[in-house]
Amino acid sequence: MLLLNILDTSLPFTNPVLKFLIILIIILLAPIILNKLRIPHILGLILAGAVIGPNGFNLLLRDSSIILSGTAGLLYIMFLAGLEIDMNEFKKNKFKSLLFGLYTFTIPMTFGILVGIFILKFSVLTSVLLASMFASHTLIAYPILGKFGITKNRAVNLVVGGTMITDTLALLVLAIIVGMTKGTTNLEFWIRLFISVVVFGFIVLHIFPIIGRWFLKRYQDHISQYIFVLVILFLGSFLAEAAGIEAIIGALLSGFALNRLIPSTSALMNRIEFVGNAIFIPFFLIGVGMLIDYRAFFTDFETILVAVIMTIAVTLAKFFAAWATQKSFKFSVDERRIIFGLSIAHAAVTLATVSVGYNIIIGETETGEPIRLLGESILNGTIIMILVTCTISTFVVQKGSRNLSIFQSTARDKSDTENEEKILVTVNNADTVEELINLSTIIKSKENKESIFALHVINNENSDVKAENNAIKILDKAIKIASATDIHLKKLLRYDMNVLNGVLNVAKEKKITDLISGLHVKTNISESFLGDLTEGILSKCNATTFIYKSLQPISTIKRHIIIMPNNVENEIGFPFWLLKIWNIAYNTGTKLVFYGTEQTIKVIQNIHFEHPIEADFVIFNSWSSAKALSNNIKLDDNLIFILTRKDEPSYQKNIKNISIYLNRYLTSNSFILVCPIMKPASINNTIEFNNPSLLEPLEKLDEIGKTIAGVFRKK
Predict the structure, then answer these.
(1) Cα radius of gyration rounded to whole Å, the chain
(2) pLDDT at 530 over 60
(3) Are 628 and 661 in contact (CB under 8 A)?
């Protein structure tokens, strides 16, 4: 009997293994086949859902398992949007996001009300509810942006911020209409809604980050961290529903809450994106496709009319909103495509609204048939509108993303291989490997996935076989950690006279631009350490060097305190280490606090004006007062000391006391000692790095090193 049950081929399939197998085959083959046809795979998954669904070949029912998985996928899309948004860009453009949110809400609302009343001849309540469906949108094409690497684009940040505004307003309209039909829109209703939303927002945006930082600091197990992220996602979604708003708003805000705790280059982010794009999001797209009833086009003329009018109206409305946004902020045509493509897709709030409206009975016909607020024609027309708008969205977003990606690629000077970023990480201690690799992933440029090396040095005189086995074990651990972030780490095992000599030789052979080394958590920094290893690197290694002691995961750091000596801006190494510090802010969203002289701060503020990040600036004139810094340092701060040497303009004798400050006053904080590259003898001493003319032509901070290096070559 069990065998007969397994082999049952009656439709729809009920065997859970077979159902899951069919869905996995679709998820596997849709991208492979449709990429050859230049059709976005997102659209393919929706169409596949229509084909296998109850209105197609009836292979699968849209049962509770599909609905559950689809709901998880929808929440996952919104969560990823909040998690990947550039918070610095979002803060910078929050008023632009507000304006876009109002554009993309009011214009479709106006279109919808006019179309409902004057063309479709609906009642006022029905027309308003129909218009709220026009106003909302779902970021269904968001995964395409990650494929082309433009999730940090200003247009994307604008749409993500505007989505929260327009969807919240659309859901508020839904709540008001439901209340009016039930007669419950009194003062008590508004007070209760306001209080619940405020409490919900406070918990998600203020309590969740505290819980997240506490958990990620104490539990390093990768599986536990991922499960914790899922808990936060669904807890935020549930709290949103409890507050009287849709779960997708809770998912989006949960992403905002964890944004700074999960760097875009981290292994945890890679796992979140991988599982979402592989499982959760495809289930949602297939589930949306199962709602499509293509037979309605052939059996009900009213459905065809309503679907065509709704689709045309919402497309025009969203296009005008995107066009108005482009003209208001002088965006490019491709950025307008991104705005329009992301905001045209309708799924989540639209489905919620039409479901609620369909279930609201406002009367009966003479024959006893229920009169629904949103009738059968609107329900079927909405499903067709969802299919068409999702189709438009995927094609438009793919075109805009491809064009923006090509533009970004051609904007980089890839022919200049002399200044190609090459990072060397010394991994002589198994306990420090993970944090050293993590540091390398947040200071590197996002394009660099190949030029990162892990080095272990063994003393020539050591003939112990265990030393080599231990070295291989450490290097393999580094490879595994890097691979979790999609970085191809190259391992190097070297025998040499000592660690310093081995590091210097490899740095010279591989033309290393950045060197990362570490201290064990139980090791105190000493004056002899500064005198021997650091001075040796400064005098012989022409690479920006980072000496890192980690007391907590770098992703849980709240602020990076950068302490700079006088005249540091006049040194050749200035733009190179500053670029890496800037990358920390870009990749983690963490605040930077710069301590330096007024002249140094002014130079950095000029850069900050062109390339804004979250940063504070403090005038700091003397290393002799470094002790006073301890009063301003908090537990979750990371200290970054910019070191120097006697022959450089920034040298101060008090810098040698850094070991005393760290051991006596700042024992609870992680720190990084940065050794800038030196000035080669052939370089003209008259070059001034604080000259504004060197900063004006920079379109990106990533180009600082190349631009200034180019100036020296010309000299």
Answers:
(1) 29
(2) no
(3) no
For the segment 299-321, the average pLDDT, to the nearest whole number, is: 88
All residues at 6 or more sequence positions from 334 whose CB lies less than 8 Å from its CB, including other chains: 399, 400, 403, 404, 407
Per residue in 104-129, is it b (16+ CB within 10 Å) or e — as a string? bbebbbebbbebbbeebebeebbbbb
For residue 562, name the pLDDT band (cuts at 50, 70, 90): very high
Place of tokens 């504004």: 692
The first and second tokens of residue 531, run together, are 């005198």
**What is the DSSP code string of 82-126?**
HHHS-HHHHHHTHHHHHHHHHHHHHHHHHHHHHIIIIIS---HHH
- Find tokens 């990947």 and name the residue: 84
- If you search the block for the tokens 């780490």, which residue do you land on? 489
Residues 271 and 230: beta-carbon distance below 8 Å: no
In this predicted structure, the answer to whether residue 712 has a pLDDT above a threshold of 50 is: no
Q: And the tokens for 438?
A: 């993590």
Q: What are phi and psi of 138, to 5 degrees?
A: -125, 135
3-state SS assignment for residue 510: coil
H or E element that contains 561: strand 559-563
Collapsing DSSP to helix, strand or coil, 5 comes out as helix
Query: Residues for the chain: how many in total?
Result: 715
pTM: 0.76
Cβ proximity of 384 and 294 under 8 Å = no
Could you tell me which residues come within 8 angstroms of residue 714 by beta carbon, excluding any fewer than 6 positions away?
A: none
Residues 6+ apart with CB under 8 A from 409: none
Quote the CA–CA distance of 507 and 577 in Å, as a whole number: 17
Spell 409-428 as b/e; 16+ CB within 10 A means b. eeeeeeeeeebebbbbbbbb
Task: Give the number of other Cβ atoms within 10 Å of residue 252's Cβ.
Answer: 31
- pLDDT tens-place string over residues 8-37: 667 788 888 888 899 999 989 887 887 777
Burial of 312 (C-beta count, 10 Å sphere; 0-12/13-18/19+)? middle
Q: Where is 425: in which H helix or E strand?
A: strand 423-426
In contact, 512 and 640? CB cutoff 8 Å = no
For residue 297, which amino acid is it?
F
711 vs 572, 679, 698, CA distance in Å?
11, 14, 13
Report phi then psi at 228, rounded to 5: -60, -40
Q: Which residues, including other chains, have CB under 8 Å from residue 142's CB and lie 6 or more apart?
A: 77, 80, 81, 151, 342
Q: In three state form, how does the secondary structure of 668-700 look?
A: CCEEEEEECCCCCCCCCCCCCCCCHHHCCCCCC
Rounded distance between C-alpha atoms, residue 362 and residue 358, angstroms: 10
Element (H, E) at 218: helix 208-218
Pair of tokens at residue 268: 């945890």
Could you please report the per-residue DSSP string of 266-290?
A: SHHHHHHHHHIIIIIHHHHHHHHHH
697 preceded by cis ω (within 30°)?
no
